[in-house]
Amino acid sequence: MIIDCHGHYTTTPPQHEAWRQAQLDAKGNPGSESPVITDDEIRESLEAVQLRLQRERGTDMTIFSPRAGGMGHHLGNEEMNRQWSINCNNLIRRVCDLYPENFAPVCQLPQAPGVSPSNCIPELVRCVEEMGFIGCNLNPDPSGGYWTDPPVTDPWWYGFFEKLEELQVPAMIHVSQSCNPNFHFTGAHYINADTAVFMQLLKSDLFTRFPGLKLIIPHGGGAVPYHWGRYRGIARDMKRPEPAELMNGNLYFDTCVYHQPGIDLLAGVVPVDNILFASEMHGAVRCMDPDTGFFFDDTRRYVESNAALSPEDKEKIYWKNATKVFSRLRIPTAMEQ
Ligand SMILES: [Zn+2]
Question: How far is the CA of 118 from the centre of ligand 1 (A)?
Fold first, then answer.
């Protein structure tokens, strides 16, 4: 079984994002609380891409969340982002109801720069307790590239982390669009955020304070695996635990690294227990690698081709670790093997 722990609904019917644009233009709800989208339109939007790629690539289930670039926490105010998040999350729920064996739901949060993350708790609770969501995407920089809020290890975030711990749901640390022209969003802002948050965690006691908190840093952990020795050295100099000890049962990297040497490095330095299979398809990189003839985001090939990983290691990466991190995930019995 293969669980892809990182997929976004990047192919929504057009009226979904059109509603958001109209909301931003109107600086409030544009005459309706949500657009009308039929089940057939949802089916059409998924059959051609995500479901086809799942079949072609031999993955079973995708842990599915609203489009990360679409969260746009810097664009609306708190109330606008709340309604937008409700619409996005309700749509994800409908996807998972239509395809319960293919998708499991992760929610977007109604964050806004300068607004306490604890204000997101009602939407988190609605999603998890009322609608069966199994995780959330937490934006460490709702300003969209200007980093105006405190680090994720600051007490500013504690109330929200307490709730995550209580509900036993993980958060994927995931920024949205960049409005800072210095940072291209998928090429720089994403990787910067992954790396920056890892360093924030390395110098903090966050996981001592919240021992049940589980965070996922996507995109292979940003630049961290490549600079693993640097982080080990910084940790030792600061009399902090080594990175592997920090990660332990709290921090995970995914496999959204789009070439073989990158996956080989990730699997070579990061403990196998802390790696979750993911592809982020259909997302940041959509083209084919002319050197291999395969799509860059076909990440299963890289895991398969890694000779250093044992079959047991691969099982952990493909699904066993995911079931520990997403403890609310219920796998259809037919898929268990
Ligand atoms: Zn993503």
Answer: 23
Residue pair 2/101 in contact by the 8 Å Cβ criterion: no
What domains can be seen in the chain, in order of their start residue? 3-335 (3.20.20.140)
Q: What pTM value is reported for the model?
A: 0.97
* Beta pairing, strands 135-138 & 171-173: parallel
CB atoms closer than 10 angstroms to residue 179: 15
**Residues known to be catalytic:** 280
- How many CA atoms, within 13 angstroms, populate the side-chain half-sphere of residue 89? 25
Amino acid 332 reads P
Question: Alpha-carbon distance 303 to 59, whole Å?
Answer: 13
Q: Please check whether residue 266 is in contact with residue 306, taking contact to mean a CB–CB distance below 8 angstroms.
A: no
Give the distance (Å) from ligand 1 centre to CA of residue 308. 27
Q: 6: CA distance to ligand 1 center in Å? A: 6
Average pLDDT on 159-182 reads: 98
Instruction: Give the tens place of pLDDT for each residue, 83-102.
Output: 999 999 999 999 999 999 99
Q: How far is the CA of 279 from the centre of ligand 1 (A)?
A: 9
Residue 245 CA to ligand 1 centre (angstroms): 26
- pLDDT tens, 191-224? 999 999 999 999 999 999 999 999 999 999 999 9
Per-residue burial over 218-242, b if 16 or more Cβ lie within 10 Å, else e, is: bbbbbbbbbbbeebeeebeeeebbe
